[in-house]
Amino acid sequence: MQAVVKSPSKPEVLIQLTDVRKSYFSAEVETPVLHGITVTIQQGEFVAIMGQSGSGKSTLMNILGCLDTPTSGSYVLNGKETAQLNDNELAKVRNQTIGFVFQGFNLLKRMPLVENVSLPLLYAGVPMNEARRRGTEKLAQTGLGAFTKRLPNQISGGQQQRVAIARALVCEPALILADEPTGNLDTTTSGEIMELFTRLNSEGMSILIVTHEPDVAKYAKRLVRLKDGLVTYDGPMADAHL
Amino acid sequence: MNLTQVFLEAFRAMSMNRLRAGLTMLGIIIGVGAVVLMLAIGESVREDINRRIAAMGSNVMIILPGSSTANGVRAGNGASQTLTLADAQTLSALPTFANVAPVVRSPFQVASGANNWNTTVMGVSPEFFEIKDFIAEQGSLFGDVEMRSVSRVAVIGTTVAQNLFNESDPVGQTIRIRNRPFEIIGVLGSKGSDLGGGDQDDTVIIPITTARQQVIRTWSPGAIHYIMAQASSADQTQDAIYDATQALRIRHRIRDDAEDDFTVRDLASIAEAAQGIATALTLLLGAIGSISLLVGGIGIMNIMLVSVTERTREIGIRMALGAKRRDVLLQFLTEAIVICVCGGAIGVALAYGGSVLITKLSPMQVGVSATGIAIAFSFSAMIGIFFGFYPARRAAGLRPVEALRYE
Predict the structure, then answer these.
(1) Which of A11, B58, B309, B321 has its CA 20 to 30 Å from the CA of residue A46?
(2) How confident is the model over A99-142, as pLDDT tens digits?
């Protein structure tokens, strides 16, 4: 396990991927998807992971989100080796350390917005009234304070994605993990959502987005480009050829 | 996630798909309703039997002439006439007996004026009224005086009174049995049907002395059809049976290794048999109800499996947001239990309504018991847990990454 030096002055290591490999097995046939990924991400970074479909970026995303486990290699998140965590501990990591933002928003259809936002708090064991209060607060911060009682299908796509971001933030995670967050949105709305991410990053939130759109990726400060399960570029966005 | 929240979610999931939840619940409603109502009916039958037995008295017994064996062919009870008036007198002398009444009986067409009616004529001694707890509703019963004087007097049951005399007062009128006139001196209070369903009010009772001389012919001069007897107390019933058996064996000169030529049957044993039937009936009815409850439970499992499949993506989202497997398990299990318990409550209410209706429309007194409700309720909750567990475990066992990808 990697030792993490806790020091407020120096940037801490948030994510340490070391030779992460992932293969899928179907009918005894091994299909390797990730061929050894080694990436380090500090706290407070804004990173875009880019790649064609089939490059392994979704698989990498799932591993980073503790939704899936690597076949081999080490993934240390916030000082913890994830391979050593059991199902319950992984659920806790998803709850406390990571805030997910999905392409399809993934709000629960039949729940009013405020309950959607406060749901992670309930899984964290926060009492219902307190969870609701904090959910309302987060909704207000993303500019949707008036819509707490509406259902997801009663607001626009861009607003839904804001709700999803509010939900991702509600447990005060160490990291926002966004998978094609603008994939279902028009250009204007995409821009607004990316501005929101930029603002959150400037307030100190670590953000990792997976996308294949250069226009979206350019909001990030650092680019990790994947091709056929290998990292082909890892550096500042400014130096990258998008 | 706390339980309040879990229940809220379960109710919300139900209200999202009302038709489906309602239909699923219907299976449980019918099942629970059937179990509660069936148990209530079985219980009421048992209580009815208890009441009738209590009315007859637990210390009452009947001594029948035993099965006769002629040339190796055994006839049933009562086929021979081995009991005599003298046997009855011997028994009445025993201290364990309070009352002993010899009985002869035979069906007759009895007539009064232009009316006639087929009924059972019984010749008995006055003790019979004591044993059967018969009282005269109108007029009076006969006693030892009428016995000794071989009077042609009769006491009739209400069924006979209605059929022969309709509304008019039968007391003082005359009926003809075998063309001999009998004066009616009393009408018996109604007894209703006996355990076998026979009408106890459809009878004409005359003194046994008169019956034997003028109405009912027996094979041998002293023979009677059976003896009704009453032990001095309920505790002494078994002693009385023993005493009677011994006394009759001696009187009938039965060798030690030979079988009795008579049968002593006390009502307690008849009651026991009837209770056994009632219990079997209750079990049978309960089993029928349980089967419908089981079918309802399978319906729950079926719908929960569909629901888990439909909501795979939701499960994935919840897992991504930090739901533990236990949370998911609890969520689906609670849904199944809520459906079952709601269905159970409605089922109990319907069964209660049904019991009120049956009590109103039929002579049965059907009451839904608290035990029945408790059993049905816990049973329906158990059905929910049992049939909800497999789908819930399937939901909880989903891998987050696959559940999220599910379309």
Answers:
(1) B321
(2) 999 988 999 988 999 999 999 999 999 998 999 999 999 999 88
| B-chain residue closest to A128, CA distance | B5
- Do B177 and B116 share a structural domain? yes
Whole-number Cα distances in Å, B97 to A94, A179, B62, B251: 87, 97, 12, 17
Q: Which domain holds residue B189?
A: 98-231
Residue B143: CB atoms within 10 A of its CB come to 12
Which residues, in sequence order, are bridge partners of residue A179? Answer: A210
Which residues, at least 6 apart from B377, have a Cβ–Cβ distance to it below 8 Å? B32, B341, B344, B345, B348
Give A138's strand partners: none
CB-count burial class (<10 Å; 0-12, 13-18, 19+) for B280: exposed
Same domain, B283 and B226: no
pLDDT greater at residue B206 or residue B258: B206
Structurally, chain B folds into a number of domains equal to 2
Write the DSSP symbol of residue A82: G
pLDDT the model gives residue B67: 58
Between β-strands A46-51 and A222-227, what pairing exists: parallel, antiparallel or unpaired?
parallel
Q: How high is the mean pLDDT of chain B?
A: 86
B22/chain A closest Cα distance in angstroms: 19
Same domain, B381 and B279: yes
Domains and CATH numbers, chain A: 46-69+86-239 (3.40.50.300)
Q: What is the pLDDT of residues B269-278, one digit of tens each?
A: 777 787 888 8
What is the pLDDT, as a whole number, of residue B195? Answer: 62
Longest dimension (CA), chain A: 54
**Span B324-346, pLDDT tens digits:** 999 999 999 999 999 998 999 99
Q: Could B1 and A125 be called an inter-chain contact, meaning their C-beta atoms sit closer than 8 Å?
A: yes
Query: Is residue A96 a contact partner of residue A170, using CB atoms and an 8 Å limit?
Result: no
The sign one gets for the Cα dihedral A60, A63, A67, A69 is positive
Let me know whether B212 and B278 are in one domain: no
Cα-based angle A6, A12, A16 (whole degrees, multiple of 5): 115
**Shortest Cα distance, chain B CAs vs residue A152, angstroms:** 14
- Taking CB atoms and an 8 Å cutoff, what residues of chain B touch A111? 12
Residue A73: its H or E element: strand A72-77
- Nearest CA distance, A68 vs chain B (angstrom): 6
pTM beyond 0.80, yes or no: no
Q: Evaluate whether A216 touches A194 at the Cβ level (below 8 Å).
A: yes
Task: Please identify among residues 73-132 of chain B the ones whose CB lies closer than 8 Å to any CB of chain A.
Answer: none
Of B41-45, B205-209, B311-315, the one with minimum mean pLDDT is: B41-45
Provide the ipTM: 0.91
Q: What is the mean pLDDT of residues B361-387?
A: 84
Same structural domain, B401 and B283: yes
The answer to whether residue B103 is domain-embedded is yes
More confident residue, B16 or B23: B23
Residues B224 and B308 in one domain: no
Residue contact A95–B322, C-beta within 8 A? yes
